Amino acid sequence: MSDILDIGDFIANHVQNQAVQVALTKRSQAMRGSPCIQCGFACLVQWGRANSGTQRFKCRNCKATFGATTGTPLYRLRNRHLWSKYLDLMNRHIPLRELQHHHGIDLSLPTLHRWRHRFLTVLVSNPAQKLAGMIEADEKFFRTSFKGTRGWKRGARPQDRRARRSGGASQRGLGSEQVPVLTALDRSGGICQTQLPDTKWSSISTEMEPWVEADSLICSDGNGAYARVAKATGCEHMVAKKGGQNAGGLSIGRIDAYHRDVENLINRRCMGVGTRYLMNYFGWARRITQHKPFGGNLLAEILAV
C-alpha cells in the first residue's frame, strides 16, 4: 500500500512540476519582443538558460539580464516543484504547520509565510470592471496589529502605546488603534475594497468614486460620504438601515455577511494578522468568496504581473 501511495505522490508531483514549467515557458515566449523591464527599450536577445531550463534574456541597451520570474512575486523563490501544490491548497485557509506535517510541503515556517504573502499580493488590487446595479457599501474596522515585530522588545515601538497582552485595544471606541477598510459589492459578485487612512468624507469619496458605474443604486448606512459618492457618480443613494428598520425593503446584509467571513478568517482562523498584511487577507477572502480557482489559474495571474 505504501508503494502505491509513493507512486501516486510521485506522479502528482511530476504533473505539478510540469504545470509550473509550462507556465514559465509561456512567460518566456511572451517576453520575446517585449520591452526591457529596466529601460523600456525593445532590444532583447536570448542570453542562455537558467538552471531550471527556462530562457533568459539580455537587453542590448542597458545590459540587464533577467528571466521568466523577474518582476513577478515568484522572483528568486526556490523549490518551484512545490509552487503548484501550495497554490492548489490556497482555496482554503490551512495553518502553516499543517502544510508542513500533513500536506508534504516540508519547508520552514518563515518560508511558508513568505510564500503565502508573495502569492497573495496579486489578489490585493481591485478588478478593472466597475460595480453596477445595486451596490452595497460599508466600512469595517480592525485593531492595528504589529504581529511579528520585535520593536516592543528592542525599544523602538511601532506605535506610541503599551504592548497589548490580550489583544484588546487600550482605548474605547474608534481611534488611532482602529484601521478602517472600505468595501463595496454588487449583486453580480463584484467586490472592491481598500484600506482607508481615516473615515473622513473626502477619503471615502476619493477611493469609492472610481469603482462605481453611473446610474447605479448605492445602499449604505447613514454615513453622508456615500451620498456624496452617489451625487458625484450620477447614482441614486438610499439609506438601507434607518431606525432599526430597512428602508424600502433594502439592506446591506450581503456586505455584512462578507465582513463576517473576513473577520472569521483574520481574527479566528488566523488568530489575528499584522496590519501590513491586512489587505492580503482581504484579497484572499474575496477570491474564496467569488469561488475563483487557485492552482494553475493563480500561477498564470502571478506570472502575468
Can you walk me through this structure?
The protein has 305 residues and is of the alpha+beta class. It is globular and about 65 Å long. Helix 1 runs parallel beside helix 10, helix 6 runs parallel beside helix 7 and helix 8 packs across helix 9. The longest helix is centred in the N-terminal third of the chain and has 30 residues. The strands form three sheets. A five-stranded mixed β-sheet has the order 6-5-4-7-8, sandwiched between helices. Strands 1-2-3 form a three-stranded antiparallel β-sheet, with no helix packed on it. The protein has a two-stranded antiparallel ribbon with strand order 9-10. A hairpin with a 5-residue loop joins strand 1 and strand 2. The N terminus is likely disordered. Helix content is 37%, strand content 16%.
Task: Give the overall shape, derived from the CA principal axes.
Answer: globular
The mean pLDDT is: 86
Please write the string of helix (H) and strand (E) elements: HEEEHHHEHEEHEHEEEHHH
Strand arrangement within the widest β-sheet reads: 6-5-4-7-8
Termini separation (Å)?
A: 43 Å
Tell me the strand percentage band.
Answer: 15-25%
**Classification by helices and strands:** alpha+beta
Percent of residues in helical segments? Answer: 25-40%
Cα-atom radius of gyration: 23 Å
**Which ranges are low-confidence, i.e. pLDDT below 50, for 5 or more consecutive residues?**
1-11
The oligomeric status of these chains comes to: single chain
